[in-house]
Amino acid sequence: MATTKTDAISEALKQLTYLAAALKAPRITEFAARLADHACDAGWSHEEYLVAILDREVAARNAYGAQLRIRAAGFPARKSLEEFDWDAQPAACQPIAALASGSFLTEARNVVLLGPPGTGKTHLATGLGIAAAGHGHRVLFATATDWVTRLTEAHRAGRLPAELARLRRYALIIVDEVGYLPFEQDAANLFFQLVSSRYEHASLILTSNLLFSGWRGVFGDQAVAAAMIDRVVHHAEVLTLKGASYRLRNRGIDTLPSIRTQDTAD
Ligand code: ADP
Ligand code: MG
To answer: Single GO molecular-function term (predicted)?
Structure first.
């Protein structure tokens, strides 16, 4: 009798292994085995046992999906919000914590991070991007110059509208280093189209070492700059980071005088 029961269990486990593989969820077999004794001891119902197994499978899938989305995003380095030293930017702590929940993405709001070099703009933009990927959103990261290059290529190939439509499927696009290099008129127009195509549809995070007043010089044309800033900030959190470069902390150097200009976001 005992042997028959053991045989039945081992047959069921074999079937479970086959079925879990067919569902492309091989971990289910492992979760089922791992939770079986606990389920017995705790007197779980069949439903509770099934929920516990599926819950672990969903969590594992989400974590795997987040890793894929993070890899696909093209971050220059993996910098999480957990690694950020808030003592260096105390005023940013609460607003960034609110943004990390990801609700700005469902509302297609933007985030603008301004501040001098080394104050953590790229780090925070990446951290918010990683958090967004964790919430199931697709993210793409590139510098402003790289975005312009990509859009120029699409434009030359006659597929700019298709490219902008494709990019709208990403809940978050991060444009790092707006203002490090000025744009040619054509580039400024392409960048404006990117901003316009996402306006009230999907989010942008922009970082810049220039205040908005300095963006006019970057985009050449005052009208293009004004129209773009208008769309970016209409639904946006604008955070201005302050202080000395984190890269140069404890080195006895406060700022880099050579890259200070009138309109920098110090
Ligand atoms: P920015 O983009 O403003 O020039 P980064 O985000 O690239 O600055 O920061 C420069 C370096 O210093 C990065 O390695 C970043 O991780 C680190 N860093 C900057 N601020 C902080 C901070 N508050 N806590 C931890 N690391 C920081
Ligand atoms: Mg940076």
So the answer is: ATP binding
- Bridge pairing between strands 203-208 and 236-240: unpaired
The verdict on pTM exceeding 0.90 is: no
Question: What's the gap in Å between 209 CA and the centre of ligand 2?
Answer: 8
Residue 175 lies in a domain: yes
Pocket test for ligand 1, best of 246, 248, 250, 256 (most atoms within 8 A of CB): 246
Point out the ligand 1 atom lying closest to the alpha carbon of residue 247: 12
Strand order in the sheet with 110-114: 139-143, 172-178, 203-208, 110-114, 236-240
Tens digit of pLDDT for each residue in 128-166?
Answer: 999 999 999 999 999 999 999 999 999 999 999 999 999
Residue after which a domain boundary falls, among 13, 48, 71: 71
- Check whether residue 129 and residue 146 sit in a common domain: yes
> Are 108 and 57 contained in the same domain?
no
Tell me if 56 is assigned to some domain. yes
Cβ of residue 102 lying under 6 Å from some atom of ligand 1? no
User: Which atom of ligand 1 approaches the CA of 113 most closely?
Assistant: 3
pLDDT tens string 196-239: 999 999 999 999 999 988 888 888 878 888 999 999 999 999 99
